[in-house]
Amino acid sequence: MDYLFQGLLEACRLLLGGDPETYSAVAATVRVSSYAMAASLLIGLPLGFILGHLRFPGRRQARLVVDTLLSLPTVFIGLLVYAFLSRRGPLGDLGLLFTLPGIAIGQTLLALPVVVALTATAVESMDANLRVTLLSLGADRWQLMRDTLWEARHGILAAALNAYGRVMTEVGISMMVGGNIKWHTRTITTAIALETNKGMFAMGIALGLILLFIAFAVTATVSLLRRK
Amino acid sequence: MALYRLNRIIQRYDHRTVLSIDGLELAQGSITGLVGANGSGKTTLLKLLGFVERPAQGEILFDERPVPPLDPAARRSIALLPQESHLLKRTVYANVAYGLRVRNDRKEERQRVAQSLAWVGLPPENFARRPWFALSGGEARRAALAARLVLRPRVLLLDEPTTSVDGASAQLMKAAALHAHRQWGTSLVVASHDLPWLHEICTDVVHLFAGRILGRGQQTLLFGPWRQLSPGKVAMALGETQRFIALRPEKEKTALTAAIDPARLTLLQPGEAPPEGREVMEGIVTRLALDRPTGGIHVVVAVGPTEFSVPLPAGHPALAALSPGRPARIAYGPGEVRWYDQNLLNQASSCESPGR
Amino acid sequence: MKHKGFLAKGSLLMIALLALLCGAAWAAEPQAVMMATTTSTDDTGLLDYLAPHFKKATGYELRWTATGTGKALELGKNCDVDVLLVHAPKAEIKYVEEGFGINRTLVMYNDFVITGPASDPAGIKGRTVAEALAAIVAKKAVFVSRGDNSGTHKMEQELWKASNLAQPEKESWYISTGQGMLATINVAAEKNGYTLTDRGTYIKYESDKAGKAPQVILVEGDAPLRNQYSVIEVNPKRCEKVNNALAHQFAVWITGPQAQKLIGDFKLMGKQLFTPNAPH
To probe the interface with A, which of B44, B45, B67, B98 has the most A CB atoms within 10 Å? Predict the structure, then answer.
């Protein structure tokens, strides 16, 4: 049990003492998860709208596929992205292996099904009269999508937070694609894995607490936004 | 040039035919009433006219031109107030300004929004900043109407605007709709159960029944049940003492509706005997209404629960004796009804979709 | 309210742009040699200690990803790293023979030890590796293995073979962790079992436990226990993209006198972890 207490002390020491290694991992985590979220929202919101709003043949099947992808294991995504980004892989020329954008690609794949599925659900659960209302006031296709998503903003915010949680906490992709390179691609989660492997449990707990602290900061900001 | 021209329109939901209109024209600057029971296709027709839905078959010309799917150009001169007027999750101000913003027409937005809120009796200083959930049912409905009025549309489609709102709200909405018509020549298409109001304002009334147009003008529909009276005749009870007698239809069907045109009805003077072969029913005058296109007068007579409208030319001597509350007798020919089969559409649709 | 919709979308776009900019920034970073290595060199802190010296000597940055030897070799095969620092001599020789790597050079060694609980239930203290393993089998004492195809795991498999014992993979007392060395020692401590570890990681472990380590060294110094590290450059003929110039520079540096002395001087708890033995 004293790991927990030591961990708490260590977390305070790392954060307040400005430990450069910790801050490097924090920066990597925040950066890479921000890219991943931006990309998955940019791609996922329109897809989720299409899936939730439009009635097209094969929609049910598409929904089934997306819901299945919610269970993609992160290590599997990591391997998949590695296979593509490896220098011998089809996208090897981009030189993205062992880089933060490389990790972000994997995390985007991780977050995408969450964003798409939950956005589709949020859009589906909107009042059926919303479409008629928007169209009757003169919205075009793009405005119809934009404002349906805006009306579904609470559900979508929940989707984004859910996806953000998955992205922040995953370790399989960061480890496999990022390589846990100190000062570069070491994120908080890979650092936790490393410290735990080294038997530095208190340090692992400290880093875990720091991750929780970041998650808290993000969630608090979002819920502040939600009130508006 | 007609504002709308509908050609062989069929609309289906889940393989069920809900609307089937062979042809309909609406004139620019007209006020058209849509009358019919719930489920008769009024809402569907309004959605088609508003181009928020596409018909399964047929075409609708607006200004004599077809409108491409989801094309905002035509839709932006038409404003539809849906039956369930949904407010967006924004302030009242943003709700009313929404249509202007999607049109990217933000000139003097503030004044225009305030003005249209005032038209529907929502003082902007009190209501503009309220969120969508802080309105009563009637206020929400009026805010929704204001969001349409601010657009100064060429066509305003109102789907049961006064249903389930308080009397004051209904009055304000009626006045605001007429204001649009008078101020900007907006063509109105109004679906409503408020027949007196429709008869008062409309240049044309379209009767819908089970997805079909039964006729235009002020005909009365008699839904039955029809009872065998003699081998050649059937009758429907109107209240406790009166009945409507009609010649038996050629084809025996279970559920039939009869329609009688006002032009086929005549008012009998006190003591006047009905002409040969005509039946008489007695009722009470409920109101007199001006028929705008002809300048004549509609005398509305209630026989039991059913209202019949009888036209009289302006200045007719009988008018002097007619005022609401007075008894009146109507003569009609039993052979002059038209029969409609209530199950017609459903039968047709079950043939069209064998898979379901 | 609607402005916020645009704001949200605007900020997303900003982030996307930022990502692109940063991507460009990364591309412009100074050249670095990318190495795949084993967990032991990283866990002990040796690489953290050497990297700044390498930078000072050559001007290049050393970056490494620490995994099991199996994955490190695989990364080399896929041309994803420039150089390898690994410790599985038989696999390495085969690797070079197959043309995946070139210029394999010995760098240093440490030795493996068998650790276990101080109570030593199988009574292996001070015995040879073969005797100790036989005693563990006879007693069915708990043995914790890396089980991750790492250099240490490969060494362990060879020791069972050399002692004429069957691989006890399926025995109930044999625990395969699939994790790194320190994690595995910790499992052994929890289970009161024996394990095979490199001495460097054990000293680190002992140092972390500040003298109260539940696992102690029971078997050491036997000839089969030597753990040889080598540097291998990834074959540039197979992999056009690898930076062989830097890889070679690193290989030369780490087998050169300066780095060899640094390795010999690297101490934890006053104990030397690695013995440099690059050929002169």
Answer: B98
